[in-house]
Amino acid sequence: MIGTGVSSCVYRAIHKETGRVVALKKINWGIGPERTAKEIKWMMKLSHPHICRLVTLYRIDDAVTLVLEYIPHLHHRFLQPKLRGRILKHYIFQLMLAIEYLHRNKVIHHDIKPGNFLFDPETCHGSLIDYGLCEHDASLNVGLTAIDDYKKMIKPVPNEFINPRMYLNRPKLRGTHGGTRGYIAPEILMRAWNQTPKVDVWSAGVILLSILTDRYSFFSQEKDCVALCEIAALLGEERLMDCAIETQRRIKFPCPYPDSHSLKEVCYGCNAKLVEEPVDEKIWDLLEGMLEPIPTRRYSSKMVIDHPYFDDIRGEYGYCLDLSGNKQK
């Protein structure tokens, strides 16, 4: 066995027909068929150098086993000390290449975390895995309105036009809530309907923040309301309030939080190794853009891979991918 989780167990095996080393993902019996079918559907459609490939699958009665491409890798706890300099750049760049490919195909991953990006520091190659929570990008139909536009639109409603009965049969607002605690974007924690692919960029930003601070995971609270307080303590209450307005939600904190902290100062304060091993200064602008709580101001995956931080390695990825993942000249 090489991995286990709530939804599955993963084994290393030899494919008898080809002699290749493969990974067997045995789906746990308690996982609903919808999630299993969803993962199979997306893996059959997606093809990219940094996305794990589905070889075949087997079904015996109600048990489903996926035969996957085997990805040599280190567990993220052993990998973290090796993520320095150019290796860190390759790690984040390849992760974002996979995410940008998904977003270009109108897919949101919804569970970006270190355990779902398998990376081998010896070969500097990584692959994104686990597509059970993937969703089609619904933001094409439900768009966000910039925060400044909302502030102009908001006007008080006269009391004589408000009838309490109009709220009695109103259904609860429920937005998609997928992902792993610590890596979930603030708009998801607020149960916003109008979620965009940028929720994956937030999660990747938390991974980068965790690496730079040497804290896994940087955010750790399980309850949504407490997790929002954690984010507010780091990025400031006002920015979280603006996020709520932009996503048409309401939020109230139990106590006032100070203004936003500089993420560079936070990282240096948490990780003394950064003084001995300084990083490329461009990384701080990248980190701030990925961890912008207001969705319309947050970097998109395309903006991340085009960021100057990756300029010195981008030439090593001398290909441009079309929607099927094939190389274009």
Protein described:
It contains 13 helices and 11 strands. It is α+β, with helices and mostly antiparallel strands and 329 residues long. It folds into 2 domains: 67 residues, Phosphorylase Kinase, domain 1 (2-Layer Sandwich); 253 residues, Transferase(Phosphotransferase), domain 1 (Orthogonal Bundle). A 5-stranded antiparallel β-sheet has the order 1-2-3-5-4, covered by helices on one side. A two-stranded antiparallel ribbon has the order 6-9. Strand 10 and strand 11 form a beta hairpin. Helix 7 packs across helix 8.
SSE layout:
Elements: E1 3-4, E2 8-14, E3 21-27, H1 33-45, E4 54-60, E5 63-69, H2 76-79, H3 85-104, E6 107-108, E7 117-120, E8 125-128, E9 135-136, H4 147-153, H5 186-189, H6 198-213, H7 224-235, H8 237-246, H9 263-270, H10 273-276, H11 282-290, H12 301-305, H13 311-314, E10 320-321, E11 327-328
Antiparallel strand pairs: 1-2, 2-3, 3-5, 4-5, 6-9, 7-8, 10-11
Helix pairs in contact: 3-6, 6-11, 7-8
Organism: Tritrichomonas foetus
Domain Protein kinase: 1-310
Binding site for ATP: 25
Features of the shown structure:
329 residues; alpha+beta; Phosphorylase Kinase, domain 1; Transferase(Phosphotransferase), domain 1; five-stranded antiparallel beta sheet; two-stranded antiparallel sheet; 13 helices; 35% helix; disordered C terminus; Prot_kinase_dom
The amount of beta strand, in percent, is 5-15%
- Rg, rounded, reads 21 Å
Pattern of helices and strands: EEEHEEHHEEEEHHHHHHHHHHEE
Percent of residues in helices: 25-40%
Main-sheet strand order equals 1-2-3-5-4
Count the beta strands.
11
What is the CATH class of the largest domain?
Mainly Alpha
CATH superfamily of the largest domain: Transferase(Phosphotransferase) domain 1
Distance between the termini: 41 Å
Oligomer: single chain
Reported for the largest beta sheet, the result is: 5 strands, antiparallel
Number of helices: 13
CATH topology of the largest domain: Transferase(Phosphotransferase), domain 1
Total tally of structural domains: 2
Low-pLDDT stretches: 140-157, 170-174, 320-329
Please state the overall shape, judged from the principal axes of the Cα atoms.
globular
Integer average pLDDT: 85
